[in-house]
Each structure stands twice: as structure tokens, then as C-alpha cells.
Amino acid sequence: MAKGVLLIISGPSGSGKGTIVEQLVSELGYCVSISATTRNPRPNEKDGIHYFFKTKEEFEKMIDNGELLEHAAFCGNYYGTPKKYVEEQLESGKNIILEIEVQGALQVKKKYNDAVLIFTMPPTLTELRRRLEFRGTETKEVIDARINRAEEELEFLPDYDYIVINDTVDEAVKDVDCIVKAERMKCSRNPELKNKFKGVVNK
Ligand code: 5GP
């Protein structure tokens, strides 16, 4: 059986990547990795569902024990991907999504050369600010820091395989699903098919 696709979705907060991922999971059956973070939970967030919320000491212990596939500091907090769950999903042929920022994405690409990196953007940076302000979960300082970080992250666009502009979520979800379908059809991901077809007709 072909291994699943390790799909990395990055993009500024407010690019709508969280909503895209939610829809890929709820409507199209994708698996998503739950990250560990030292950031405080937002009012609607639950431990073990949105993130595994950790103290700095707990997080550093996970790093020391080699439990993380990648980790990075982002706007003053640690974020990281627990390794075991991701490996299990890939081995069982499932596509798995990591919704992570650029430093982590590049670490994963070094370990998994066939990981597929998608960068999501809203149609404009003005729209990005509007979405962050509308969400109302961050202070003005945090919103400013995240907009600055968005501009910095754009520098890494050439390291990504695809960009998906999130104008409407439904279209963006379809775009991501098409990318994954095409990736799964790559010859390099299906070496066993050569033997399946070879020599069958003349027997
Ligand atoms: P937020 O605080 O808005 O939930 O996430 C901030 C940033 O951290 C987002 O860009 C999000 O994709 C990223 N992020 C979430 N989980 C991880 C992770 O496990 N590793 C890395 N490197 N980034 C993450």
C-alpha cells in the first residue's frame, strides 16, 4: 500500500488555514496532527482537541525525549508536532495534515523529502488584518506582531510547493484536495504498480 501524503499547510494567522483544515477533516476524512504549545488557550480552545497545552518545562522535556518531529518558537511561544501519531498515520496509508509555521515546515521537509508544502494566503494583507480584528481574540499588539510575521513568512514562499489563495473556503478546500490527489498519483509514490501491470496481457 502506498504511504499517505504528509501535507503541511502554512500561512499567516488569519489566512483561514484553520478553517480549511477543519473542512478537510470533517468533510473529506483527512487526519490532522494535534500540536503541543506553550501558548495560553483561547476561550473556545480545549486541551487535546485544538492543542496539547504545555508549560515551558513540559515542552522542553518533550524536546529532550525526542518526542517531537519538529518544533519552533513563534511570537514568543513554543509550538511542536508530536512524532508518533504522524508516523502511524503515514504507515497506515492515511494522508495527514500538519498546520504549522514555516520554520517547522522546513524542518519536516528535511526529514520527509516527499512532504507536500502548501502556503495559504488571503487575497490581500488588508484582508488579513480585517480577519484578525474581526476574530477579536488578540490584542492590537499581537495583531501587529502577526502581520509583521506574515510579511517575514512570505520570504519563504520559494521553499513551498504550492500557494492556495483563500478567497472562499470551499474553493480553497477543493484546491488542496486536488493537489493531494495529484500527489498520490505520482509514479514515484506508486512503485509497486509496475509489477501489477507487467506481463499480465500475454499470459
Ligand atoms: P496560533 O497561536 O495562531 O494557534 O498558531 C500560531 C502559528 O503556529 C500558526 O502559524 C500555526 O500554524 C503554527 N503552529 C501550530 N502548531 C505548530 C507546530 O506544531 N509546529 C510549528 N512549527 N508551528 C505550529
Protein described:
The protein is α/β, with parallel strands linked by helices and 203 residues long. The protein is built from eight helices and nine strands. A five-stranded parallel beta sheet has the order 2-7-1-8-9, with helices on both faces. A four-stranded mixed beta sheet has the order 4-3-6-5. Helix 1 (17-28) crosses helix 7. It starts with 5 loop residues before the first strand and ends in a 6-residue tail after the last helix. Bound molecules: guanosine-5'-monophosphate. Guanosine-5'-monophosphate binds at residues 13, 35, 39, 70, 72, 74, 79-81, 99-101, 103-104.
Could you name the key traits of this structure?
4-stranded mixed β-sheet, 203 residues, 9 strands, 19% strand, globular, 5-stranded parallel β-sheet, binds guanosine-5'-monophosphate, 8 helices, alpha/beta
What is the mean pLDDT? 92
Shape: globular
Please describe the biggest sheet, giving its number of strands, its sense, and whether it closes into a barrel: 5 strands, parallel
- Poorly predicted runs are none
What structural class do helix, strand and pairing data support? Answer: alpha/beta
- Count of strand segments: 9
Q: Largest sheet, order of strands side by side?
A: 2-7-1-8-9
Order of helices and strands: EHEEEHEEHEHEHHEHH
**Relative helix content:** 40-55%
What's the helix count?
8
Strand content: 15-25%
**What is the first-to-last residue Cα distance?**
25 Å
Q: Bound compounds, please?
A: guanosine-5'-monophosphate
Radius of gyration: 18 Å
